[in-house]
Design goal:
With about 500 residues, the protein is α+β, with helices and mostly antiparallel strands. The protein folds into 3 domains: about 200 residues, 3-Layer(bba) Sandwich (FAD/NAD(P)-binding domain); about 130 residues, Alpha-Beta Complex (Polyamine Oxidase, Chain A, domain 2); about 110 residues, Orthogonal Bundle (Guanine Nucleotide Dissociation Inhibitor, domain 1), CATH 1.10.405. The protein contains 15 helices and 21 strands. It has a 7-stranded mixed beta sheet. Strands 13-10-2-1-15-21 form a 6-stranded mixed beta sheet, with helices on one face. A 3-stranded antiparallel beta sheet has the order 5-9-6, with no helix packed on it. Strand 3 and strand 4 form a beta hairpin. The longest helix is centred in the last third of the chain and has 19 residues. The chain is globular.
């Protein structure tokens, strides 16, 4: 195949996997380069103390058509499950558990009954929240670019305050969704992105917000199946390959770096970041170069900025201005079961969301492994493991009475310093589309302008868009490259609201 029909994809996360599969399906010759020795990007698993643990708790919604379509394409959709009906257990210290459950009424009335009975708001706050939700529905982000920019200039918190939502209502209700979906509290997050999350996930269709869970580990669901699917599609997958420099060439683009090994179908693709030394491939290896007619950068925006700097300094500057927001996950193993249920949200507690991952992790019989997901975790990023233990184990005992008599067998912390771009006001103007000013150089990632916050859904959508742009640059017909979307008969449309947090 001629060089001008070659595509190199830098990055083996969800966006890069999607883009590589699309390009291969259209007949391009594809090489995928991944710095780690496994695929999946930020969605990965690692082994510790005999358990298989995910770095973070990614969930998705029924309306995540693109992400669900990718899982079907990978043959791993049987490893996820979607709630028959949205249910969010809410725990508060000293209070009985509350279940926020949607009814069978059409949107937005499906949540009216749950809101009317929600005990963590006063009657006046419940009525005010209903009025604010209706006002949120009426916000039109599609009427014009100028209107969308106006929404992106203010915070969701300021808008809620103008609509009668005080700090108590925001903490007990609105931040249950905003914080994990945007990786920022409503007080700091862009109104444009916040409105999109609530309208798409909760106000567009009755079942759009039903939550989907990964029943297996992320590596079993994404990384391993993706490696097999890519190899079957004819993609050359090179793991442990660090891209160090981009340059223009007569035939397109060159990616310079230090090479790792070619992936093989029988090899494990689910090694975690914590697997030990040598995880970052390329150190001590010989310099290498990969040439192609088009290159897709599907790496975190901070790394993309460094690669773009020599060629497109202004673009690199924009990506650097996107900022970042961290996520911290606590992994707590008890010697007995302390909570019944797959997950829960916390109110009036530092515990934001907790998930029971006992089955997927292979926890010993009788023990329970709870993963606690903390979004917008700037404070927690600076805390030691001992300090986190001293803060969060008592908080868990307050929420879970049975934890008061249980023994903690293991307490582990994982941190994602730059888990997502910072979804603050003004971020919309900084997020680029797939095409750059350099022909054939394309961008992909949840940080690109997908319309979504940093989510699994956004990552997949960005991969599809990047593949179309790369194929167009090569003059290759993209029709048929994109895998069919998930079932959209609910009317929810494509999209999703998570990522490396509970409900994104």
């Amino acid at each position: 195949m001629s060089a001008d029909r070659r595509v190199v994809v830098v990055g083996g996360g969800v966006a890069g996997i999607t883009a590589a599969l699309d390009c291969a399906a259209a007949g391009a010759s594809v090489t995928l380069l991944e710095v780690r020795r496994r695929l999946g990007g930020a969605a990965y698993s690692f082994q510790r103390d005999g358990l298989e643990m995910d770095n973070g708790q990614h969930v998705f919604l029924r309306c995540c058509a693109a992400y669900r379509g990718l899982l079907r394409r990978l043959g791993s959709d049987h490893l996820v499950a979607v709630q028959p009906r949205l249910e969010i257990p809410v725990l508060k210290p000293g209070s009985k558990p509350v279940l926020l459950r949607r009814s069978s009424l059409p949107a937005p009335l499906q949540l009216a009954g749950a809101l009317a009975r929600y005990p963590h708001l006063t009657l006046a706050q419940r009525l005010g929240a209903a009025r604010a939700a209706l006002a949120l529905m009426r916000l039109d982000r599609t009427s014009s670019g100028r209107h969308e920019q106006q929404l992106d200039r203010v915070t969701l918190g300021d808008w809620l305050a103008r609509h009668g939502q005080g700090a108590g209502a925001v903490s007990a209700l609105w931040d249950l969704i905003a914080l994990p979906a945007l990786n920022l509290p409503a007080a700091e997050a862009s109104l444009a992105l916040g409105a999109f999350v609530f309208r798409t996930g909760l106000l567009s269709a009755a079942d759009a917000g039903d939550i989907g869970f990964h029943r297996a580990t992320l590596s079993q669901t994404i990384g391993g199946p993706a490696q097999r699917a890519l190899l079957q599609a004819g993609v050359q997958v090179r793991l442990g390959w660090r891209a160090e420099r981009l340059e223009k060439s007569a035939g397109g683009l060159r990616v310079h770096g230090r090479g790792g090994r070619a992936a093989e179908s029988e090899e494990r693709a689910d090694e975690g970041e914590h697997a030990g030394a040598g995880q970052r491939g390329g150190e001590g290896s010989e310099a290498d170069c990969v040439s192609a007619g088009a290159a897709i950068l599907a790496v975190p925006h901070t790394r993309a900025a460094r690669l773009l700097e020599p060629l497109l300094a202004d673009w690199a500057g924009r990506l650097g201005a996107l900022g970042s927001s961290p996520i911290v996950n606590l992994h707590v193993v008890y010697d007995r079961q302390v909570y019944n249920g797959p997950f829960a949200a916390g109110v009036g507690t530092p515990v934001q969301y907790l998930f029971d991952r006992s089955g997927a992790s292979g926890a010993p019989a009788g023990c329970q492994y709870l993963a606690v997901s903390l979004s917008a975790a700037e404070r927690e990023m600076g805390m030691s493991v001992d300090a986190l233990r001293e803060r969060y184990l008592p908080a868990l005992r307050e929420l879970l009475p049975r934890a008061r008599q249980a023994k903690v067998e293991s307490f582990l912390v994982t941190r994602e310093h730059a888990a997502t771009f910072r979804a603050r006001p003004g971020v919309g103007a900084l997020r680029p589309g797939p095409r750059t000013a350099l022909p054939g150089l394309v961008l992909a990632g949840a940080w690109t302008d997908t319309g979504w916050p940093a989510t699994l859904e956004g990552a997949v959508l960005s991969g599809h868009a990047a593949a179309q742009s790369a194929l167009h640059a090569l003059g290759v017909e993209p029709d048929g490259a994109r895998a069919p979307d998930a079932d959209t008969s609910t009317g929810a449309g494509a999209g999703a609201i998570p990522r490396r947090g509970p409900v994104a």
